[in-house]
Amino acid sequence: MPTALLLENLHPHARTILESAGFDVVTRTGALDENELVDALSGVQVLGIRSKTDVPAEVLAAAPDLEVVGAFCIGTNQVDLQAAAGHGIAVFNAPFSNTRSVVEVAIADIISLTRRQTVFDKEMHAGVWNKSATGAHEVRGRTLGIIGYGNIGTQLSVLAENLGMSVVFYDTAEKLALGNARRMSTLDELLEASDVVTLHVDGRAGNAGMFGAKQIARMRPGSIFLNLSRGFVVDYAALRDAVLSGHIAGAAVDVFPVEPKRKGDPFESELRGLPNVILTPHTGGSTEEAQAAIGQFVANKVRDYLATGSTNLSVNLPNLALDQRPDAHRIAYLHRNVPGVLATINATLAEHGVNIEGQLLATRGELGYVVTDVASPVAREVVDVLAGRPESLRLRLLD
């Protein structure tokens, strides 16, 4: 019976799906540090995490039983994807399941900050009645600048236009503009045109520190800033200075360079206590609906990979969408993408009298993935020959 270790309070759907598929499921509420994780992964085939658990190359090298990592979130920068692929470990995430939740909280933040609701709320709780329109605006007619026009950015673009906002966006990749949104040719051009600037970039290393004092200075005086993407992309000390000076009228931040690993742990940030600043504990995608969808989506991907070899939507392996064939025996072979691998597989099977019924090959950079369905059980010597090849990374038999 394969074992799955699920960390960080994953939705119960994940456990239910994996247990129904015959897994022995172990759950833990918080994240684990590197040493704890190495110990916990002994004898474990499946690891389920969210954003707080780091899975570096050292952990992957010390977990020979591990076959698949499920990141029950959008981002995968907490996992060394290249090292995982090198050990034949598939990684899956949930790129779409909580995008609506992030978009909705972005809309809520934009309206709350533009209307200065946070300031009024704090004053009212302090017993101060301050009925004033000063500094409060409608979002209708204002310009929203979206940095990162991916799954979240595009949905936000549509909803913002429905509220009467004009939308401009900037992305380093070519993206189709939705509705009346306009693409800006440079980041500076976007900053100078926007009343509200919101970041929705991914966690690649090149984005670290991309938004600092220089970019903040190019924003319009009195504009609003949001970061619901990654904590390490923004210089928060510079943001604090801009809020205190009045150059930035309000900000909403959901992600931080260093975040507590467990619920209830102390939280420190230079942004605490600032006026008209909304701080949330990395909950942009954390709705009950989103977590249920993520739990179901990622658990199904993990289950299907181990049962059928399907790597569809894996973030680090060549992608093959596969169904189970109960009348066939399947060889799933991950290897380095060098010439002659397919010929070697077929020649080895032919030498041992194994008839091929179906075969699919996909490549991804330096990796190749061949899935072969055969009519008869595969002999041990066939496995030994293929697994012993210098280009071999992982071979699995799926019956």
UniProtKB/TrEMBL annotation:
Chain ranges of the ACT domain: 330-399
Pfam family for this entry, one: 2-Hacid_dh
Annotated GO MF terms: phosphoglycerate dehydrogenase activity
Domain of life: Bacteria
Biochemical pathway: Amino-acid biosynthesis; L-serine biosynthesis; L-serine from 3-phospho-D-glycerate: step 1/3
Swiss-Prot/TrEMBL catalytic activity: (R)-2-hydroxyglutarate + NAD(+) = 2-oxoglutarate + NADH + H(+); (2R)-3-phosphoglycerate + NAD(+) = 3-phosphooxypyruvate + NADH + H(+)
UniProt KW Heme keyword: no
EC number: 1.1.1.399, 1.1.1.95
Keyword annotations: Amino-acid biosynthesis, NAD, Oxidoreductase, Serine biosynthesis
Function: Catalyzes the reversible oxidation of 3-phospho-D-glycerate to 3-phosphonooxypyruvate, the first step of the phosphorylated L-serine biosynthesis pathway. Also catalyzes the reversible oxidation of 2-hydroxyglutarate to 2-oxoglutarate.
Family statement drawn from the similarity comment of this UniProt entry: Belongs to the D-isomer specific 2-hydroxyacid dehydrogenase family.
Protein name: D-3-phosphoglycerate dehydrogenase
